[in-house]
Amino acid sequence: MRAYDIIHKKRDGKKLSNQEIEFLIKGYTKGEIPDYQMSAWAMAVFFQGMDKEETAKLTEAMAKSGDNIDLSSIKGIKVDKHSTGGVGDTTTLVLAPLVAACGAPVAKMSGRGLGHTGGTIDKLESIAGFSTALSMDKFIDSVNQNKVAIAGQTGNLAPADKKLYALRDVTATVDSIPLIASSIMSKKIASGADAIVLDVKTGNGAFMKSYEGAVKLAKTMVEIGQEVGRNTIAIVSDMDQPLGWAVGNALEVKEAIDTLQGEGPHDLTELCLTLGTQMLLLAEVANSTEEAREMLERAISDGSGLDKLKELITNQGGNPEVVDNPNLLPQAKYSLEVKAPRGGYVQRIEAEEVGISAMILGAGRETKESEIDLAVGLTLAKKVGDQLTEGETIATLYYNDKTKVKEAKEILLKAYQIGNTKPELNPLIYEIID
Ligand code: URA
Ligand code: CA
Q: What's the per-residue H, E or C state across 5-46?
C-alpha cells in the first residue's frame, strides 16, 4: 500500500477501504508518512468528504493510535459530555456534580485549552488547593466512592488526532465535518466513555457558525457513535450570545455554584437540565425524560447537587468553604461598570467579541504560553431581549491590569447592538439528535 495511491483515490472522490484508512493513520502516527502527504490527503477529504463508514473507521483508527483509558472497573455506564466550545460555557462545572448526585457515575477528563477563558481544569484551579492531577487509581476510586471526579488529561490520548489537528490548523483543513467529527469522537472514545452526550453550538460565538453546519456535525457524530458501538446523543444549542452571565474562571465557578443553588442564569440552567436529562437516560438511571428532569430539578432544590460539589472539592484537596462563601475565590482588584450608550432593547450580543473582551482582561489564553488570571473576566447584566435605559449598566468588567481595561470596554460596547424594538429570541435548544 502507498500513501500516494490513497491520496489519489480520495482526490478522485472514491471511498477508502478500512485497510487504507488504518494504513494512513498508523503510518502518520509513527512518522512514516510525512506531513506533506497527510496535508494533501486532508485537503482531498475537505473537497470530497467521507461517508459514514470511512468517518467511523478514521475515528477508530485515531482512537487506537495511543492510550485507551479503561474505566471498566467503575460500576455503571460512564457517560461523557462534550461541548464544541463557545463563550462562558459553565455547563461541566454544573453538570458533573448534578448528574453524580442523581446516581450516574461521572469520570470526567478535561483540558485547559486556548480560548476566551480557560478550560474546566483552569476554572477548577481557582478553588484553593484543588488538584486535577489524579493518578488513574485515585481517579477510578473517587468515581466509585463519590460518583464524580474531574481530572486533567494525561497520557497519550489519540496522538494521531493531535498531529493531524495541528496539521489541519496550518493547511486550512480544519472546517471539514468528517474531520472535525472524527477528531472529537476519537478523543471521547480513547478516554473510555461508554456513551456520549454532545452539545454542538451554533451561532456567532460557536465553532460551527451556521445552523446547517452544526446539525450536520451533530448527525455525523451520532452516526459515528452508532458505528463504533457507543450510544451518542447530540443537542444543537444556541451560542449567538454568551451562555449565562459570567465569562471568566473564578466568576464561572461562582456562576456554577449559583446554578446548583437554583439561582443561576435561566439559559445556563435550562441547558444543564437538557444535557443532564440525556446523560441520565444514557446512564440508565432514569427511564424517561420526565423522570430524568425531575431528578435533576430535585437535586437542585434539595441541595444534593451542591453537596456533591462540596464532596468533589474536598476529595480533590480543595477548600469546600468556597461553596458557601464564594468570596474565598480569587477576586480582581478593580471593577468597572459599562453603561448603555442609549436606551432601547438589546438586539444582539456578539458572543465572540464578549469572549475577546474577557481574554484581553486576562481570562483566557491567546497562545499556549499565556498565563491566565483566574480572578478576572466580566459579567453581563443585560442579555438579548432585555430593555434598558441610557446609562444603565450592561456589564461589569473585573480586572487587575489597568492598562487593559480601556480596550476591553470598547470591545464589549461594540458587542452590544441596541435598537428600538424588542427582538425575536432564538430558541436555546434547537434540536436533539439521537
Ligand atoms: N475540536 C476538535 O477537537 N477537533 C476539531 O477538529 C475541531 C474542534
Ligand atoms: Ca457563563
A: HHHHHHHCCCCCCHHHHHHHHHHHHHCCCCHHHHHHHHHHHH
Check pocket membership of 184 for ligand 1, CB cut-off 6 A: yes
| Least confident interval from 135-139, 233-237, 365-369 | 365-369
- Sorted by where each starts, the structural domains of the chain and their CATH numbers stand as 3-49 (1.20.970.10), 79-324 (3.40.1030.10), 331-419 (3.90.1170.30)
Residue 183 Cβ < 6 Å to ligand 1: yes
Residue in 168, 310, 365, 404 annotated catalytic: 168
The percent of residues above 90 in pLDDT, for the chain, comes to: 90
How would residue 42 be classed by pLDDT, with cut points 50, 70 and 90? very high
- Does residue 28's CB lie within 6 angstroms of at least one atom of ligand 1? no
ipTM for the complex? 0.92
Can 168 be counted among the known catalytic residues? yes
* Residue 282 CB contacts under 8 Å (≥ 6 apart), including other chains: 77, 79, 195, 196, 197, 231, 233
Position in ligand 1 atom list of the atom nearest CA 180: 6
150 Cα–ligand 2 center, Å: 19
- Per-residue model confidence as pLDDT tens digits over 190-228: 999 999 999 999 998 888 889 999 999 999 999 999 999
What mean pLDDT is predicted for residues 86-98? 91
Nearest ligand to the C-alpha atom of residue 179: 1
Asked whether 181 and 196 are in contact (CB, 8 A), the reply is no
Q: Write down the residue that cell numbers 473510555 correspond to.
A: 192
What pTM does this model have?
Answer: 0.94
- Amino acid letter at 146? N
Strands 393-399 and 344-349: unpaired
d(CA 156, CA 411): 39
DSSP for 287-326?
SSHHHHHHHHHHHHHTSHHHHHHHHHHHHTT--THHHH-G
